[in-house]
Automatic annotation (TrEMBL):
One of its GO terms (cellular component) is plasma membrane. It comes from Weissella soli. GO terms for biological process: carbohydrate derivative transport; phosphoenolpyruvate-dependent sugar phosphotransferase system. The keyword Cell membrane applies. This is Permease IIC component. Its main location: membrane. Keywords: Cell membrane, Membrane, Sugar transport, Transmembrane, Transmembrane helix, Transport. The phosphoenolpyruvate-dependent sugar phosphotransferase system (PTS), a major carbohydrate active -transport system, catalyzes the phosphorylation of incoming sugar substrates concomitant with their translocation across the cell membrane. InterPro entries: PTS_EIIC, PTS_EIIC_3, PTS_IIC_cello, PTS_Sugar-EIIC/EIIB. The keyword Ribosomal protein does not apply.
């Protein structure tokens, strides 16, 4: 009876549920999102190096770098790489969308960038607003010492003529607000990238283009080909900006952030969100579908902004949950939920090294040992296999969920600090990646998660190993009789 129920459940998932999910995952928009975000990775990783250098966790070195001025140089390098990741997303997503349609793609990427910038008010709040008043930060010197308190700043401003006070406290206009170029503008960049890619492709295929004679060089002709679709998109973008500014006195990026980005980031940054992501990675993989790729593409749209926000807080020396730091970030996903590979299968590797009896388990374990150090576990997924393996299904599903809950909890209760926004490459070995993304406490916690994996997998692996061992013994006996 139980086997019939399991069979029906498996049939429903493989015939009904997975095809629908795969149809969604393979849509043009989702493919553009997945592949387009890849273009941001070099800047995220390189920017993380500059972030570490600008915030060296050794006080003496940090002070020396600050006094020498190099800390400011590293900060600028971080700001113009990791700090503008929404730009890379806006360009990359539109580029990939149009490239996948078989068209000249770079003009679409640049059109997306222009549209993304056009949708925001080109202004920033004057620095005076943040330093004035009793709760203001005050004015500090190069050493970080407050030389004029917030109250003192207000008193001095109050003595000026009203017109001058108004001028000094008005927003600075004619500048790009860099806040929207980081994680805060990521969802808007994704939407713009997808819509621009879609509209550009549609217009080109519909023949909305200027065709020049064959004698005109291709590089010149391509730009005229892009002129009409790019022009239509940018005119429409300008009109959208104008309507929102005149009717609501805000811009599209603010609307998207407040109505969509903030709620979705909040959901992804919850315990429920962490559990759901951890479960779905293993769920997809169990049926042979690349769970890491699917969830990385979908959840990354909200987890990468969480990482960027934490990086900004870390860079400002304000990394704490009270200051708005996120618990679930892209590094939470890469370096805990997928630690040593989807399903956190290091526990299986440990079992094969110390307790396995079957030749199959031992052989696959030796093959998997080195890849596991770099968070790759395809030898286990398909060689053991873990895919559709009822013996190991429970630990494969359960281990990431346990790690997600426990890691969320140790950060939430202040046992370890929030992740600092440093984006360690996903192939960085465990413990080393923990130190990079959260310091020595996070490295210790990451080591503990490896132990948890071993404890969860061990009894199930032992049972499966015994099953394989008995099969091998039976095969050996039969072969012996035939001889």
């Amino acid at each position: 009876m139980e086997n019939q129920v399991n069979g029906k459940m498996s049939s429903f998932i493989t015939k009904k549920l997975l095809p629908a999910i795969l149809k969604f995952v393979n849509t043009k928009a989702v493919k553009a999102l997945q592949d387009g975000m890849v273009y941001a990775l070099p800047f995220i990783i390189i920017g993380s190096i500059f972030l570490i250098l600008s915030n060296v966790p050794v006080p003496a070195i940090a002070t020396a770098l600050k006094n020498s001025g190099w800390s400011a140089f590293f900060t600028q390098a971080y700001t113009t790489t990791f700090g503008i990741l929404s730009i890379w997303a806006a360009v990359g997503i539109a580029y990939v969308y149009v490239r996948n349609e078989g068209l000249e793609a770079l003009p679409a990427g640049l059109t997306s960038l222009s549209a993304f910038l056009m949708l925001q008010m080109l202004q920033v709040t004057t620095p005076l607003v943040g330093v004035m008043g009793k709760s203001g930060a005050g004015i500090t010197n190069s050493a970080g010492t407050v030389v004029l308190s917030g109250a003192e700043v207000s008193n001095h401003i109050d003595k000026l003529p009203a017109a001058l006070q108004s001028f000094l406290q008005s927003p600075v206009t004619g500048v790009i607000n860099i806040s929207w170029l980081s994680g805060q503008g990521m969802v808007a960049a994704i939407i713009v990238g997808i819509l621009v890619g879609w509209a550009y492709s549609k217009m080109i295929k519909a023949g909305w283009k200027i065709t020049l004679p064959e004698q005109v060089p291709a590089n010149v002709a391509n730009q005229f080909t892009a002129m009409i679709p790019s022009g239509v998109i940018l005119i429409a973008t300008m009109l959208i900006y104008a309507v929102i500014k005149m009717t609501l006195n805000t811009d599209m990026l603010n609307l998207i952030y407040n109505s969509l980005s903030a709620p979705m980031q909040g959901l992804s940054d919850s315990l429920v969100g962490a559990i759901l992501i951890a479960f779905l990675v293993s769920f997809f993989w169990f049926f042979g579908v690349h769970g890491g790729l699917i969830m990385g593409g979908i959840a990354g749209a909200f987890l990468i902004p969480n990482t960027a926000n934490n990086a900004a807080l870390y860079q400002a020396g304000k990394l704490s949950l009270n200051n708005g730091a996120h618990i679930v970030t892209n590094e939470f996903y890469n370096n805990f939920i997928n630690l040593t590979g989807s399903g956190i299968t290091i526990g299986l590797v440990i079992f094969t090294l110390v307790a396995a009896k079957s030749v199959q388990f031992k052989t696959i374990g030796r093959i998997e040992f080195v890849p596991a150090l770099f968070n790759i576990n395809e030898p286990f997924l398909f060689g053991l296999p873990l895919v559709l393996n009822p013996f190991l299904a429970i630990p494969f599903f359960l281990t990431p969920v346990i790690i997600a809950i426990s890691t969320y909890s140790v950060i939430y209760f202040g046992i370890v600090p929030p992740l600092n926004g440093v984006a360690a490459p996903w192939t960085t070995p465990a413990i080393i990646s923990g130190f990079l993304i959260g310091g020595w406490k996070m490295a210790i916690w990451q080591a503990i998660t490896l132990v948890i994996s071993a404890l969860v997998y061990f009894p199930f692996a032992k049972k499966y190993d015994q099953y394989l061992f008995e099969q091998e013994q039976e095969k050996a006996r039969n072969e012996g009789l035939e001889i």
